[in-house]
Amino acid sequence: MRTTSALIACGAAALLAFSLGAAPAAAQPAPDPKIEAAQRVFEVLPEDERRAIQADLIWTGHYNGTVTGGFGPLTYRAINAFTGKSGPAADGLLAPAQRAALKDGAARARAAAGFEVLTDPRSGIRIGVPTRVLTKRATNALGGTRWQSADEKVTLDTRTGQPGETLETLFERASAASADRKVTYKLQRPDFYVVSGETRTGKFYARMAQGPEGLRGFSVGYDKAMADRVDRLVIAIAAAFEPFPGAAAPAVPATPQAGAPPAAPTPAGARALGGVIVAPGRAVTSRAALEACTGASVGGRPVAVLPGTGPLATIEAAGGAPAPMRADAVPDGEALVVLAPGPDGLVAIPARAVTANGRLALAAPLQPGAGGSPAFDRAGRLALVVSADPGRSFMVAGIVPERNHAAERVEANGGQAGAGPAGAGAGDLTTGAIVEARRGSVLRIDCRP
């Protein structure tokens, strides 16, 4: 099973700017009943089959996302594109004969490319290589391997970090533009970056990851005239990319509250919401996310919602430490950290405060489960709470992009939670320090849809 870091790496690696616009959307997409109906049918399938469908759609040229087994608009559109369904006929479903045709077409495309998932002995990276396209193989000077086509118009390089290199310096170098080099997409996160672009005659894509064993990544360069053929190969290469095969997932384990009974297992079919303790016995979460639940619980106990209105709902919360609150306004562009519930603990998500359409918002790559989650400033103070409900996984080529999500200051939400304790004081805490300091203030709310 892939680790969390490997899945993030694959998602980032599949973000190919040659087929996408990079501007974040300004509003949450409305739920589509047709997509939801197709998702229910898709999710009945075994996980291996769901992944196989997505992988096959890559090879037929209809899907440019990550192979996760999850279902969303990208998979829905890819299935409809393959089946030729559009308009009222579009249902995102594959009949048995269509599934067989998809499998056969993908198998022929893989065989024609000689695609194999290999472990590079020099860099330790696991990556997909179209061996019939990239027939030349040699070592490179960057601690990895170079595969090239016979005419040298397509090149795949794996690499490791060299002495003196950091993720930041490599990103600056990779994202530098010039008269002959145009960067069409760039994304930097604490543990990886993605850069893609064009030269006068070619296209390029680079991905670098940082982990316990250092820096590992790959790059692909190819002639523009070959884009129709090579674009899908790059997606397949990126979807198979694992920088640190077998590495442990970097999840932050939750710390049980003192004196509290062990948390009950997450109910089958439930999804997670976030929440934050703001006063003794009181927490807040997203009202929109909570109202989408038929039932909600924390640690197996039903959630009691207190009377009130507004984007944030106040709930009863036993135990836990109230989060220190920020007293002043949060200016546009300030860096924040969202702490959201993940499958194995807290997930720290980089974010920034923005004003969109005259309203306060968070620009962040939030995933399902982040509704109601708190955003802390670099002094560890509660700055905002996500009032939106990112209940659907909105992906662009397999990665959750930075988008604007509605957010609220607790003090501005009718004063329902009180002023809270004193601020944490000035300082520029690391993300890890914020997680450690505030884990006792963050709730995981299990929501039955």
Write up this protein:
With 449 residues, this protein is α+β, with helices and mostly antiparallel strands. 22% of the residues lie in helices and 30% in strands. The protein has 2 domains: 4-239, Protein Transport Mog1p, Chain A (3-Layer(aba) Sandwich), CATH 3.40.1000.10; 271-448, Beta Barrel (Thrombin, subunit H), CATH 2.40.10. It contains 9 helices and 21 strands. It has a 7-stranded antiparallel beta sheet, with helices on both faces. The protein has a 6-stranded antiparallel beta sheet with strand order 13-12-21-10-11-14.
Keywords:
six-stranded antiparallel beta sheet; globular; 449 residues; 9 helices; single chain; alpha+beta; disordered N terminus; Protein Transport Mog1p, Chain A; seven-stranded antiparallel beta sheet; 21 strands; Thrombin, subunit H
> Approximately how much helix is present in the residues?
10-25%
Major beta sheet, specifics? 7 strands, antiparallel
| Whole-number tally of structural domains | 2
Strand order of the largest sheet: 3-4-5-9-8-7-6
Element pattern in H and E: HHHHHEEEEEHEEEEHEEHEEEEEEEEEHE
CATH superfamily of the largest domain: Mog1/PsbP, alpha/beta/alpha sandwich
Shape: globular
Do you know the CATH topology of the largest domain? Protein Transport Mog1p, Chain A
